[in-house]
Amino acid sequence: MYAVIALFDATLEQKIKKIWEGLESNKISYYAQEVEDRVPHITIASYKEIPVKNFINEIEIFYKNKRQVQLDFQTIGSFVSTRTLFYSPTVTKELMDFHSNHHQYFASYNKEEDSLYLPRKWVPHCTLANRLSQEKLQEAYSYCLEINEKIEGKINRIGLIKIDGSKCAPVIYSQSLIER
């Protein structure tokens, strides 16, 4: 399985990693350590199988002149069925266009009609913890509320990850976006 992910500038990435570390040191969640090479991101699309070389060529063409996207995280949310805790960015036209334009261009690769990353199903988010018990979900939520720090930055790169089972998800390709 593969996913196209929006990667963050160094400052935003470090803020999210610091939260992951705090959740771990407080024995609330080990999300950051569960998968080798995990990096903070927002998933744009997922694909079961793709011709990797061709897909990367398409990424290079499509994202060549794309600009960075400003992000502002002001919402903490949860997916009930998986007890996943996440930061949700403010939904802007720029972010939604970034997502929908990707799906329009790469429509021939969209074979999964049930994908949660398709337009009209997508909930943009950056996962902080997942598969938590009810008690740990409450602890994680409280921990994140206490941070009370402005979480903002930019999507400055687009990446392609390969998900091997549940223990490894390396970025196999990334491309920088044009600075604003």
From TrEMBL:
Gene3D superfamilies listed in its UniProt record: Cyclic phosphodiesterase
Note the superkingdom of the native organism: Bacteria
Q: Which GO terms describe its molecular function?
A: ligase activity
Q: What keywords is this UniProt entry annotated with?
A: Ligase
Keyword match Lipid biosynthesis: no
Q: Which InterPro entries match?
A: Cyclic_Pdiesterase
PANTHER family per the UniProt record, alphabetical: PTHR36039, RNA LIGASE_CYCLIC NUCLEOTIDE PHOSPHODIESTERASE FAMILY PROTEIN
The name of this protein is 2'-5' RNA ligase family protein
Question: Top-down, what is the taxonomic lineage of the species of origin?
Answer: Bacteria, Bacillati, Bacillota, Bacilli, Bacillales
